[in-house]
Write a structure and sequence with these properties.
Distance between the termini: 46 Å
Number of strands: 12
Oligomer: single chain
Structural class: alpha+beta
Order of helices and strands: HEEEHHEEEEEEEEEH
Radius of gyration: 18 Å
Shape: globular
Strand content: 35-45%
Length: 220
Amino acid sequence: MGTSGRPARKKKMERLPDAAAFATKLKNTLIQYHSIEDDKWRVAKKVKDVTVWKKPSEEFCGYLYKAQGIIDDAVNNVIDHIRPGPCRLDWDRLMTSLDILEHFEENCCVMRYTTAGQLLNIISPREFVDFSYTVGYKEGLLSCGISLDWSEKRPEFVRGYNHPCGWFCVPLKDSPNQSLLTGYIQTDLRGMIPQSAVDTAMASTLTNFYGDLRKVLQKT
C-alpha cells in the first residue's frame, strides 16, 4: 500500500532497467539502418514522390522497409505529429487507440496502441506495446521505437511486434520549411498471414502514412 492508503502503483521499470542505455542502443541501430547502401534495397512501391523500398530483415524472417518523401512543413511540427501523443490519433487512419503507459523522461515513454484491420480484415486488428524515444539527429530529429514483451494482453487483439523502427526528419538544405522524412519499419504482424498480404499491407500503409500526414499538416 502507498502512503495515501491506496495500493501503490505497480512499477514497470523492471522491464527497462536502464532506459537511457536502451534508448541509446535503439538510436544507434536506426542510424546503422540509415547508412545502408542504396544497392541493398529494392523498390516495393512508388506513389508520386513517395518511395518504399525493402530488404530482408536481420531481426526476423520478414522485411525491413524504408520509406522516403518530402513534407511541406518544419521538422519539429512533423515529428510532433508522428511521435506518441494526441496529434497522432487525429490523422493516422491505421491507428485506432493510443495510451501512454509509462514516462521515463520527456522524450522517452512506453505506449500501447491498436491498429485497424487491413485488406478486408485478412489482417485483423493488432495491438502493440512499444518503447518510444525522440532525439536530435544532425539538424533534425529521430523518433524511434521497439516493441516490448509486455505481459498484459487483451484477448480481442493479436499482439504484433515492432523490431527497431523509426523516422528521421531533417530540413531540406535550401528550404527550411520543407523536411525530408525517411522511415524504417520492420513489423512482425504475427498470426497466420500470407507473406504476399503482409507485403501489400506494409507498402500501402507506408505510402498512405505520407498522404495522411501531409493532409493534416496542410490544415494546421
